[in-house]
């Protein structure tokens, strides 16, 4: 008795009439059954209310990022021979973090939902840092906290979640 699971699937290889693949005879250069060959479509940038909310959050995050880059430059300018390691590492960290914020913001505005997680995390850190500055001049912690709360409200709003969720399969 012939076992149906042991038979080859598809046309026999030696039949010239059926030699074309199932894709209509067009060779796509990859095996359609190979999961590594799948290339997902590019994300769709958010529109409407979601886009406006992301632009508000983006304006806030851009100011934060540029502030970090300015602090990095200021730190690099005051490095003394006694604190080279600390000065260089602090300047590098502040500059790199500012650049990463701008890069994540760029990706988010193009519809890449993964970038929102990094930006939300950065705003939560800023909110906690604002609490640390509460003993200083009143407007520093207030400004940091207000910026973080507004950015978080925009990033976590329902229209933004819907717009980014549709492209990421959530």
Describe the structure.
With 170 residues, the protein is mainly α. It has one domain (48-168). It is built from five helices and no strands. It has helices at 48-77, 84-109, 114-132, 139-155, 158-168. It is flat, with a radius of gyration of 26 Å. The protein starts with 47 loop residues before the first helix and ends with a helix. The chain crosses the membrane at residues 53-74, 86-106, 137-156. It comes from Aeromicrobium halocynthiae. Residues 1-44 are annotated as: Disordered. Keywords: Membrane, Transmembrane, Transmembrane helix. This is Integral membrane protein.
Which properties best describe this structure?
Integral membrane protein; membrane; transmembrane; 170 residues; transmembrane helix; mainly alpha; flat; 5 helices
SSE inventory with pairings:
Layout: H1 48-77, H2 84-109, H3 114-132, H4 139-155, H5 158-168
Helix pairs in contact: 1-2, 1-4, 1-5, 2-3, 3-4
Transmembrane segments: 53-74, 86-106, 137-156
Keywords: Membrane, Transmembrane, Transmembrane helix
Region (Disordered): 1-44
- Write down the Rg: 26 Å
Shape: flat
How much of the sequence lies in strands comes to under 5%
| Helix content, binned percent | 55-70%
Ends distance: 48 Å
Major β-sheet annotation: none
In DSSP terms (H or I, runs of 4 or more residues), the helix count works out at 5
Helical/strand content category: mainly alpha
Q: Give the mean pLDDT.
A: 83
Number of strands: 0
List the domain count as a whole number.
1
Q: Which stretches are poorly predicted, pLDDT < 50 over at least 5 residues?
A: 18-26
